[in-house]
Amino acid sequence: MNGAQALLHTLADAGVEVCFSNPGTSEMHFVAALDTEPRMRAVLCLFEGVATGAADGYARMAGKPAATLLHLGCGLGNGLANLHNARKGKVPIVNIVGDHATYHTQYDAQLQSDIETVARNVSPGFVRTAQSTAQLGHDAADAVQAARGLPGQVATLILPADVSWSEGGAPCPMPTQPAPEAASASAVAAIAQVLQSGAKAALLLGPQALREPGLLAAARIAQACGVQLLSEVFPTRMERGAGLPLIERIAYLAELASVQLAPLEHLVLVDAKSPVSFFAYPGKASDLVPPGCQVHTLSTPAQDAVASLERLAAALGASQVTPRLQAPQRPERPRGLLTAPKVCKAVGHLLPEGAILIDEAITSGLMLYSMTAGGPRHDLITLTGGAIGQGLPNAVGAAIACPERPVIALIGDGTAMYTIQALWSMARENLHVVSIIFNNASYSVLNVELERVGAEEAGPKAQSQLDLKGPVLNFSQLAQGMGVHAVRARTAEDFCQALEYALAHPGPHLIEAMVPESLAGAKRKVLPWLLKSLHHLPPSVAQALKRKIAP
Q: What is the pLDDT of residue 452?
């Protein structure tokens, strides 16, 4: 058995069943060894950012890591943005990066680079270069264990070509994964006392707590103590819909988030980070916790959030409390000229049971969360690290992890072009993914940010960097060129018909929604002024404006 074969057998024995690959010469022995391991599915991606984003989407839905196969430091660099998103989402990935043979590195060949330094940006907890074929199985087992422990992480294993092709490899069994601890009795008791005090408090829920068991435990606590339930701005994966609690997401815009958090006297973190502004802005605070609000940690990302919530519920006598759950509801079928809110309304109207929603619609998706709140049970995946180009690759991975469930990916036109090659992988693997591209011919969110950061008034050269009008992209033709059934829609009636067709027919589909910008013209000019004025307004008025702008 050579090293590559031993590596693949070790991964498969550990439950890693899919490898998203974009290989080169140094990885050819790994590629050849794929035929020796029938348990490993190999998915070719035409860009490394698709491979890494697909591994991310797969792990979010499968609850276990996939592998990537990348070519040297340059390939790793191409996949870095979506590995960054996975790191921020605490998503487990086993990232395999090929390298030159150990004896070849001394020659500083054209593709030679410092792979470990690049990898540490996204794999701060585990970066290892395999040194021998005999040890490679152990290296692989360690990588899997590091990836799937709490908190989940990207574990990068660098594979020199001669370690891969040499004989003498042996699979290594996985060591027992230690069970994570729950919150300590003292932490639970202290937070229970805070919640029973009657002070205004909220639980801020992170990835582990946003699945059904954690949601129900948190909702029982909320019902018993009158506390608010919040999620991070961009949740890794959230279970939603009728029969589950309604969770309010912290707003992306710092000014709106400050309005949400202003009444709080206590904020309890459950596998979550204390909220901060997405970017720095002149004259504005980066820390969004309001003055006088105390921050408490129930469970860290390395602890068992669900068990911690259940302990807290027991300490509060809330284990048998009936939680408040969402009643079934759908928006009406939209009509007329197509707009971004009408697309979100149509998705809510037609959302099938068990769907996986992937939201990278940026400004066009402002209404998606509210329009799907009481719909059939579904999962929501969002842009955890803010590096655009995640949505289409995530859809590939999610569809492979859950082949029986439809995937609906709502994507902005600017972000779609970062990883458009994902459409080809959808067609090749015949995945039931409906990609909805909002074509408003603009980097709309950047136009908003230009106004908010206080930059000089944009002239024609500056404005040209933020629009996509010369020429306007044609996503339906791009999709058809990659084997994906695609249509353009300009009216709500056409869009609904296209979505019904796509949901009824397995395989990949793309619907190009021709819409105006959601925040343009007077709205965009007024928004910065309105945001600046929020802290001068009565709290009830500020809260009402927040719900209007970002429901």
A: 67
